[in-house]
Amino acid sequence: MKTIILRTASDFLLPVLLLFSLFILLRGHYLPGGGFIGGLVAAIAFVLDAFANGLKNTKTLLKIHPGFLMPVGLSLAFVSAVTPLFFDLPLMTGLWASEPIPVIGNLGSALFFDTGVYLVVIGASLTIIFTISEAA
Amino acid sequence: MEILLAVITGLLYAAGIYMMLRRSLVKLILGIILLGNGVNLLIFLLGRITKGKPPIIPEEAKVFQEIYADPVPQALILTAIVISFGLQAFAIILVKRTYKVLGTDDLDQLNTTDEDS
Amino acid sequence: MIIPIFVTTIFKSMLLSILAGLFVAVGLIFIGKFIKNKWAAVSLTALPLGLFIYFLNYIPQIASGEIIYQKISWIPSFGVDLSFQLDGLSLLFSLMITGVGTLVFAYTSAYLKGHEYLDRFYAYLSMFMAAMLGLVLSDNLISLFVFWELTSISSFYLIGFNNTSEASRKSALTALGITGIGGLFLLAGALLLGSITDSYSIAEMLQNKDFLLQHEFYILAVIFIFGAAFTKSAQFPFHFWLPGAMKAPTPVSTYLHSATMVKAGIYLLLRFSPILGSTEFWNTTLILVGAVTMLYSAFHLLFRTDLKGILAYSTIAALGILVFLIGLGTQEAIIAALVFIVVHALYKASLFLITGIIDHETGTRDITKLAGLRKVLMPVAIAGFIAALISGGVPPSIGFVGKDLIYEATLGMPTNAILLTVIAIVTNILLFYAGFVAGVKPFTGKLPETYEKVHLPSWLMWFPPLLMVSAGMVFGIFPQLLESAFVGPATSSLVNDSEGFHLKLWHGFNTILGLSAITLVVGLLLYFILKPTHRLENFINKLEVISPKSILFFLTNGFEDFSKGWTNFFQNGYLRHYIATIVGFLVVALAFIIFSNFDLSLDVSSFSELTTYEIAIAIMMIGAVIFTVFTNSRLAAVASMGVVGFAFCLLFLFYSAPDLAMTQFSVDTLTVILFVLVLYRLPKYLHLSKNVLRLEHGILSLAFGSLITILVLKVLQEDQNSEITNFYAENSYLLAKGKNVVNVILVDFRGVDTLVEISVLIVAALGVFSLLKLRLKTRDKK
Amino acid sequence: MSNLAILSPLLIHLLFSILLMFAWRSLKWQKSLTIIGNSIALAASIWVFILVYEHGTQTVQSGNWQAPFGITFVGDMLAVTLVLLTCISGFAVAIFSVVSVIKARLKFGYFSVFHFLLMGLIGAFLTGDIFNLYVWFEIIIISSFVLISLGGEKNQLEGAVKYFTLNFLASMIFLTALGVLYGLTGTLNMADLSQKIVLLENQALVEICAVLFLVGFGIKSAVFPLYFWLPASYHTPPSAVSAIFAGLLTKVGVYALIRVFTLIFVGDLFLETLLLSIAILSIFSGGIGALIQNNIRKVFSYLIICHIGFMIGGLGLFTTVAIAGTIFYLIHDIIVKTNLFLISGLIYRLRSTSSLQKLGGLYDQYPKISLLLAIPLFSLVGIPPLSGFWPKISLILAGFEQQNYWFVGAVIFGSLITLVVIAKVWSEAFWKEPKPVKKWKKFVDFSQLKQIQKAQLIFPIAFLSVVSLYIGFGAEHIQQLSERIANELMDNQQYIDAVFKTRTDAR
Fold first, then answer.
1. Looking at residue B36, what is its pLDDT?
2. Quick check: C74 and D476 CB within 8 A?
3. Does residue C117 sit in the same domain as residue C33?
4. Which residues of D441-474 are buried (b: 16+ CB within 10 A; e: fewer)?
5. Residue of B9, B19, B22 best to disrupt the C interface, most CBs of C under 10 A
């Protein structure tokens, strides 16, 4: 699998795909996309990289164990879900910044939530795939 | 088209169940995936299908002006797909591990826990 | 709420009298080890003795016709309360329970001296006594049932007291099983009666008597009550648990299985005879069952050589007599029954205690080996002799009075008087024999050498039986004592008009005296002629094959085989069998509804047209599915699965679901990667199933698939107008500030779904991780 | 305030599962955290229970979207009672796990998944949205898959494959039913469904939908003829895991059946007959299955099936009295069944076997523990006045009222067979002389444990036994509660009103 072409391509592809996944995440509120799809795309990017450069390289590139992303992402989602409770609003109530921000548009708790989803999806998918590749 | 899709739905259910009824662990997984797809299609179809009108509000507008596809089933299916992914991944690993520990792919060999001990 | 109730009412003494036993039982769990020295054990006797005296105090009040009623609210929602009624009948039983209890408690302290589990034994006995008191004092039928079950459980523990012996355990289980069935009958009966009369109070049922007798469920209620009474009081064909129960230590046999617990069924029948009695069904059934039980067990005792066996069968016979008398139902019969309850308690308890002494000192209960013990156990021999006299109805013992009453009752019957009397006489003759064999035979004749060194045990053991039989003689000579204190009040609570009837020892020369004489003479003859031998016992044991016990065991074995067959048929270990059953069940249910309700016509006008693209996608999908199912290559199957997935993407794209298409695409990619990673480690396909089975499964699957298709088409015919969709469309941007409605639903409208969904993913990942990384060594198990 | 209150036990469990993931490496932290988390959740659930008990049904419209547009959480009396019971069981099992589950398993996320499982259960009880219910079900089953296979022993895997497949099938059937329901009504909120479904012309389709739900939930609640996964798998994982499964997992299926058949599909004769038939057959099948087993945990597994029949039967009779009986039985059963499997774990620890043939002598060797164990065992049988007895009154009375003598007979049969089975267990495991057992080399016998560890094994059992005793002796309270719940269920307008009451003041 570790052909030169694939390796070169993936060196190039990984940042592009990651950027793309972020883009998908951010635009999700307006166009097709969102945390799930973004996360899955990012995961595929890393998987491709692992195929091309070997699991070890990808892992060093990642620096942290992908599993760590799961609690982090879930915490993010959890926090954005429970924050409204402190304003005496029900769980998951959307909170919005009063002014839209350029590029992203309206900034609200929904985006934090979606980012949490994004991280969890990356973490979970990579944990699954990496564990299997190590064991296989 | 709905008729054709309804038939395909039925076919996916039938194929899923048939594969689950086989003795091979691999076929069991394939059956599970097929059945999952069948269910997704059923929900999609029963949410009434619409061609070429994605549920995205046009850039200039604030509400929909014309007919659009029902977004609710789409959201449900999206959730279901991701959940199924988790379950299927787990199932694949479970099968792999089972094969490794038991040394067989034959489901009929997996009946010691039902025997009286 | 519960606590105040108990605090305010704890001093209402009747509840306390019951709780006392339970407190002692619980206390013994914790301080049990201190009672193992002899005097501590004796001091426990203070419990029944105190209660006995307490109940004695009530005699004047009750005799004057008063009924003491106490009620403590417990579970009003169910109409269940702790209401106690002390009338003549309850008082008679309470005195018997506590009186015999006192003697048994004292006896036990010597009988089981130094036993490792003496504390447990006392705990069980105390619990039993409490339960039994509760049973006879309860006015509420449900709380009566509560205590009824407690007696069964205590009995289970007492029979299984020697728990390392398999026979003990088996007997305990049998007894519990039989009385358990009875208990459930009682529960059903109680609930039925309660729902008919709208109250569980026995006193209130008595008020509604006429209504009950007319009710369509009268027979059913009676059957339930009979079921309870017959099992508890060991009536044919449920009698066999009682001889088995003799595995328990002798004090238990004395207390539970002759004097008190087995009389609970009798108590129930007596209690209900004013309410449900006096119908033909009631009387006939009781007479029949009683008579069969009497004769059957009286006949059986002839062949026994084990002293406790003889006593067990004679107890069953006595219980039969009681049921029989209640069945006769006349005033004379009820009085006879009440007197006989006391008589029987006195002599049978004594005989059991005596047997216990013999067993304890000589180590055997085999009647063929025992003789001449009077030389070493004189006081016991005296007690035995008197007990035999009472049992045989020899004047001037109270037994004579009792027997007279029985004959009087049978002779007084308007129909079949002769037949009934003959049955009673035959039984009495055999009981006479039993009493003499148990009470006299071991003490007469020549003392075998082996027993010369036997010596008299502690007075705690021989004094109780002596006391009881003495009471029997005193009552015989002064029957009015018995009448005023015990039988009179009890009679008045059961019979409307009890005036003008008095117990007498001497009625003058009449037919009844003649019958008594016949009983006496024939019984004595039988005793001298018939010597129990093992040969006879073996002979009768061969007949056991057709006894109710064997039949029941045969049936339970059959039931067990059936259970195995049934369970293994359904739970046979084959996953495909399970799936097929479940899907089959679903298919049958769905098909039933579909074909009984639907016309299968279809209105196609609302459906969209077919285009070439769609047909192409459809063909691709169908082909891929079929290929997945039938290919022989795993890799090809996985690949065509992938094709199915990508066809889905196209479909989603085509039908306005871009988000779905993207998700499906990514997920599909990952799944295929996963599959490929794992697949190399898995074996190749084998052709495992037989073709017939494949065909069956194919038909089942296709049936299921077709039903789903029909269902889908039918649902598509209905109008659907989704209110929520419209709301989302209108407010997605205005309120939730998003234009991709699917995404807005996911993160806002239905964000909780998503929160849980990512948790699912996490757990799945954790599961995969642990499944692959965690390897337990076999030695690390659990 | 109510915004936070109803969901607090749920959020606490979620929070602690996150914290536990962060504390992945430290076993000590994991143990302390789980005990703290479960204690807080227990306290919170008591608070919620009292709140609802005093102020009536509470709702939370998540995202502040009014029903039926958002996901509504409904804390009615039934839901919060079950949440309370879940937290009680969870608390007991967590403490039991600390000692009884081996380190290797604990190191691989046992507690984290355990909290996810409890969260899922609580969510399933509270949610008022049918698709959300599906999602909660999924977190429950995936957690249970992980817990049942954690450790990957041979028989665990065998059990897990069956458990997985059949539960997955159940989920798919559930999802199918959901799709049909949405296709018919265009809504997912259960209160809304209840209103819309009666308006539908084609009631046969509704009936089909109900049958699909019945089968989907029926598999989860292990009724005849859908129970096969249960006896195949419940005895394979560590007993702490089986305990939480036995106590709660099948009951969540029962809960879903109760909810769906009192709120959405009401008064269909065919369905009631079907429910009653499977109830009677479950009692029968489970009872005779338990009779012939030798493994003590299998005996208990079959008893679960038997007693599920009692509850489903009460639902099938569909009168207030019967439903009250079902609810009472449910309350009793959750506590007792959890305890039973903890007991089986303790017995294993005492004797290193679960085989009835080899067990024995417990009563002689550990009399006080034995008497403690006798409480749940006899509660299960329903020896009056212990907890299992009282609901039978309601069930039998309802059976007489509806003149369904088959069901009355089945209840009596089930009670009798439970009595015989438990007496047999007692006689074999506690009375008989033990047979020699080959122990694993590393097996740590009870006597070798430290005092604190012994306490951690005994305390949960004692705690649950005390709860059982309370249910038995304080039956008046439980019955009043059950009747109240039954009345709420039979009059589903209350539920609907509670969901929609704030519709007017939407934001």
1. 93
2. yes
3. yes
4. eebeebeeeeeebbebbbebbbbbbebbbebbbe
5. B22
- Choose the closest CB to A36 out of B54, B82, B96: B82
CA angle D200, D202, D205 (to 5 degrees): 105
Chain D residue numbers touching C559 (CB-CB < 8 A): 288
| Nearest by CB: B113 against D152, D159, D168 | D159
What is the pLDDT at residue D49?
A: 94
Phi-psi region of C738 (alpha: psi -120 to 50; beta: other; left: phi over 0): beta
Tokens of D170: 């159940």
Residues in C closer than 8 angstroms to D368, CB to CB, are 29
- Greatest mean pLDDT range, C586-600, D351-365, D389-403: D389-403
pLDDT band at C758 (very low <50, low <70, confident <90, very high): very high
Lowest mean pLDDT among A4-8, C618-622, D19-23: A4-8
B75 within domain boundaries: yes
Tell me: do C176 and C60 sit in the same domain.
Answer: yes
User: Tokens for C598?
Assistant: 């639907």
Cα–Cα distance measured from residue D257 to residue D264, given in angstroms and rounded to the nearest whole number: 10
Identify the residue with better confidence: D41 or A4: D41
**For chain C, which chains pass the contact test of at least 3 CB pairs under 8 Å?**
A, B, D
Structural domain total, chain C:
4
| Domain presence at residue C596 | no
Q: Check: CB of residue D327 under 8 Å from CB of residue D79.
A: no
**Inter-chain contact D64–A93, Cβ cutoff 8 Å?**
yes
Residue B86 within any structural domain of the chain: yes
Per-residue model confidence (pLDDT) at position B81 = 92
Query: To the nearest whole angstrom, how far is the Cα of A41 from the nearest Cα of chain D?
Result: 24
**CB contact residues (below 8 A), chain D span 331-370, against chain B:** 355
pLDDT tens sequence across D364-386 = 888 888 989 999 999 999 888 89
Domain membership flag for residue C566: no
Contact C655 B49 (CB under 8 A): yes
Contact B72/D182, CB-based, under 8 Å? yes
State whether residue C201 is helix, strand or coil: strand
- Parent domain of C759: 736-782
Is B117 a domain residue? no
Cβ-defined contact of C771 to B46 (cutoff 8 Å): no
C700 found inside a domain = no
Domain enclosing residue B91, as ranges:
2-52+69-109
Please tell me the predicted confidence (pLDDT) of residue C156: 92
Q: What pLDDT, on the 0 to 100 scale, is given for residue D503?
A: 46
Structure-model confidence comparison of residues D38 and D66, the more confident one: D38
- Structural tokens at position C515: 């019958």
In a shared domain, residues C287 and C218:
no
Note whether C108 and C139 are same-domain residues.
Answer: yes
As a whole number of angstroms, the distance between CA D354 and CA D343 comes to 11
Assess whether C287 and C263 both reside in one domain: no
At C521, which amino acid appears? V
CATH of the domain at B19: 1.10.287
Q: Do A129 and C670 touch (CB under 8 A)?
A: yes
Q: Could you tell me if A30 and A105 are in contact, meaning their C-beta atoms sit under 8 angstroms apart?
A: yes
CA-CA distance, C578 to D164, in Å (whole number)? 13
Mutate to test the interface with D, among B26, B72, B85, B94 (most CBs of D within 10 A): B94
Residue of B nearest to D234 (CA): B113
| Number of structural domains in chain B | 1
Residue B60 inside a domain? The answer is: no
Same domain, C252 and C303: no
Residue C690 falls inside a structural domain? no
Of B15, B21, B46, the CB nearest to C579: B21
